[in-house]
Amino acid sequence: MSYVEGFVAAVPESNKQAYLDLATAAADIFKRYGATRVVEAWGAEVPEGKVTDFHRAVQAEPGEVIVYSWIEYPSKQVRDESFQKMEADNAMDGFMGDAPFDGKRLIYGGFDIILDV
């Protein structure tokens, strides 16, 4: 069964191109190591809720846009093997050093797909 890693981040609106450049380079690496799909979505209509929302989840500040992204793998096993291979050859070294967003406020998780229609 397919496996998905999902991410939510707050990115300064002025850093959109820098974020896209970083995401594009990272996507090439993820796909080289087994990801079947990488999606980056720039917030267009992300409402603030009364109790919780994406903005609160990542402590978004004025001028930041919510980015929702995910990486699909054929299975969790493929994802785990991909991660080990990337670490072994340092494929991601230096990527987050100049990240165009605050990585400490990034939220993420891995998910088993239970419905895909």
Structural commentary:
The chain is α+β, with helices and mostly antiparallel strands. The chain has one domain (3-112): Alpha-Beta Plaits (2-Layer Sandwich), CATH 3.30.70. Helices cover 29% and strands 27% of the residues. The chain is built from 3 helices and 4 strands; from the N terminus they run βαβαβαβ. It has helices spanning 16-32, 54-57, 76-88; strands spanning 3-12, 37-42, 64-73, 107-112. Strands 2-3-1-4 form a 4-stranded antiparallel β-sheet.
Layout of helices and strands, plus pairs?
Blueprint: E1 3-12, H1 16-32, E2 37-42, H2 54-57, E3 64-73, H3 76-88, E4 107-112
Antiparallel strand pairs: 1-3, 1-4, 2-3
Distance between the termini: 14 Å
> What's the number of extended β-strand segments?
4
- Helix segment tally: 3
CATH architecture name: 2-Layer Sandwich
Q: What is the molecular shape?
A: globular
> Strand-residue fraction?
25-35%
Order of helices and strands: EHEHEHE
Q: In angstroms, what is the radius of gyration?
A: 15 Å
Counted up, domains total: 1
The largest pleated sheet is described as: 4 strands, antiparallel
CATH topology: Alpha-Beta Plaits
Spans of at least 5 consecutive residues with low confidence: none
Structural class: alpha+beta
- Helix fraction, binned, reads 25-40%
Strand order of the largest sheet: 2-3-1-4
Broad CATH class: Alpha Beta
User: Please, what is the average pLDDT?
Assistant: 94
